[in-house]
# Entry
Amino acid sequence: MLSLLFATAIVTVLIGWLENTEFHTNFVLKVIELCGLVLAATLTFIPINKLIRPHWTGTFAYVLGLVVFIPFSFMFSVFGTYDFGSLVTVIRDNPPGAMLWVGIGTLLGPIIKFSSMFVLLLFGGIYFARRVPHFSKIVLMVGVVLIAVSPFTKFMYRMVVPDPSHAFISIPDDFQEPIITGRPKIKKNIVFIYLESLERTYLSVPELADALAPISQLEDEGLSFDNVVQIYGTEFTVAGMVATQCGVPLVQNGIINLHKKRDKRANDPLIDPVGFMDHIHCLGDILAAEGYIGSYINGSDLAIFNKGRFFQAHGHERVFGVNSLSGSRANVYENSWGLSDASVFEYAHDELEYLVGLGNPFTMSILTLSTHGPDAELDKDCDYPIFHESQIPAAIQCTGDHVQRMVDKIADLGIANDTIVVILSDHLAMRNSVSDMLELHGENRRNLVTIIDIGRQGVFSKKGSMLDVYPTILEVMGYQIADGQANLGISLLSDTKTLVETIGSKTLSSAFKQNQPLQQFLWDYDYFTSATSNITH
# Structure
């Protein structure tokens, strides 16, 4: 039995790892499965000797290989990525307790599966290495291979040998702080509605047409930007927010001093003394200087990925999350993450009324949750039918209804003509229960970016990334900015080429990934000041 379980674990890990590679073919899969059967049969029927003296080098390499490989295999299976930088971000920027509850609530099955495989591979490998002649050599070889292909190894290698693609990004040439050359006569309010994982690609899936009807109708009524790709540094929620409001990618703030960061968070779960790219000039900073009131609402803990800290650092004096409410978790939480979208929009309606009553222009950002993978977090009253055993379509439709009611609320308050509504995905969907439909579109998957500004309609197909949303918003609001540029973003309404158009999305992603000078530039004020003093445009 142990032989079969051990071989099954190896086959499962291998097939999962090869899934998004050119080697994931029926022939290769059959070969792997056949090898698994041969291994199981061999270990079952080969005579088991008395204990063999262990080769500690092989055992150590094997254990280390499992430790630096299996966690990334889990990441790839669940999220569709095995980037070590993303793992660092999760560890660095999330309260352990909150993420534990999320993991138990949404990923318990995969956690049990991969934990079981890790235990099987660990003890199975050691057991057979000590009882089957020459198996210790196989264990050594497997350990070396696992270490060699681990994303951790690649990450450490690139710490020493930078990716040549970094040369495609030049801070003096490519970065320009927003230079405002003209201001709008009317200061319009602006409301951002970030739709969790609700990418534009869903609109291209015929089976989901009914679920997308509310979103599709809103897109037809506004300015639609249908060619916004995903690049590195914009592929998770707060990264998408930073990109669209600041025009820069969210690259890691180093992997040093993690323990110090966590100690500071223990004293205050919302405000972190180290700041959040405070020196980068974002939309909230510009609008705060123009007299706008900033507000942010989401249903999860504000400390998760430091979303609350980001908005507070950039012109948003009012932030709200589930940790803003008093009471026990059992009495406050409505799902694994926090509040349902129904509750979030209820608070958003109240906040909208409050902001309107102040008489000042305002910027308001709302983040939804229900369409989060792996299979949505439905509102209690969301009663649309389950499609192909997936709750995602129902969640999309209910989210669309919430968004439409928010747009209607703006009209009911009489501020529709003075308010711009931005409806957008925070990032492309990670692995979820309808991923097979999305993955059919391959590299043609796109983010959703729709801007509703009464009296303006149109489709814009200029190729860009979420970085380019920031200057686009400024221009839609009526600001004139030099060269149509804000930080690394280029307005999708301008004739200037975006970075994606200039060097391509894959090269741009490689240029951002583990780019230590860029990390320093975005996170270190002194480095930023020194670098920008040499910029001349």
